Amino acid sequence: MTAEGSGRVLLRACRIAGLDAAGACLVSSAENSVYRLRGGVVARVGRPGQRGSAGNEVRVARWLERAGLPAVRALTGVAQPVEVDGAPVTFWVELPDHHDAENLQVAEVLRRVHALEPPADFRLPPLAPFVRVRDRIATAPTVSPADRAWLLAYADDLEARHAELPGGRDAGVVHGDAWAGNVAVDGTGTAWIVDLERFSVGPPEWDLVSTAVRMTSFGTLDAVGYRQFCDAYGYDVTAWAGYETLRDIRELRACSYMLQHAASGAAARAEADRRVACLRGRAGERPWHWRRIVTTKASPGDSAVPRRG
Length: 309
What we know:
The protein is α+β, with helices and mostly antiparallel strands.
C-alpha cells in the first residue's frame, strides 16, 4: 500500500473511531504504516487481509497488561481493529521516548514471555513461520522469474524440513518476531514489548533464533555479545539439532521482507538482490553482513494524511 493509500485509510478509520487525524505524521512504513496522532496516540495501518493478526495484537496487548508485563497498550474506548477497504487499523498509547533494546534486555524479556501461561479468555494462534513469505516472493516487483521460482521451491523445501524438526523445548507462548527492534527501552530502563501481531504458541527456539542469526548469518552481533545473550536467557539455541532449519527459515523471511520493499529505492533493491544471491550460494559463506534498510522515516513535522475535500 502506498503512503497516500494508507493515509486515506487512516483518515476514514479515524472518522469511524471518533479520533482526530489532522496533522497525523507518518513515522515508518514497513509491514505496517505507523502514524503519530495528536494526544499521544499512535495508529497502525495494516495490509489488506491482515484483520486476524491485527485483532490478535489488540487482544495480546490487553492480556499482557493484565499480566503485568510492560507492553505497548491498545487504546481503550475504541472497538478495534477498524477495517477500511480490507485494511485493519489499530490505535495505541504512544510510548515514552525510547531506543532499541540491548541483547541482555531482549533475553530477559523473552524469559518472561516464555514463562507465561497461554491466556484463558482467548486462543493464541499456532506459530506460522511461513506467514506472508510466499506472497512477498510471488508479488516482489524486482525479482527475476528464475530467482522467484527458486525462492518458492526453497520455501517448499524449508516447509518440509520444518515438519521434521527434532524435539526441543516445550512449546508455549512466543513473541513470534523477537528481535531488538521489537523491545523498546525508555529513559527509566523499562523494556516495553512492541509489535505483538505474531504472538502465538510454538517452540521458544523460534524466538531465540532471531538473535542467533545476527551472529551466524547477518554478522551484526559478535560471539561475545551472543554468549552474553545465551547466559542471560539460560540456553544456546545454536546447539540444538533443529537450529539450521529455523535459521534458514529466518533468513528466507528476512529476504522476502526486503523483496517486498525492493522498489522503494536503489539501496533497498541492491540489498534485496544481495540477499537473494546469498541464499542462492552466490555471495560466499555466512555471515553475509546484510544491511538493515529503513524504507520510510518521516520528519516529525510532516503531515501524512490527505486534507479533507
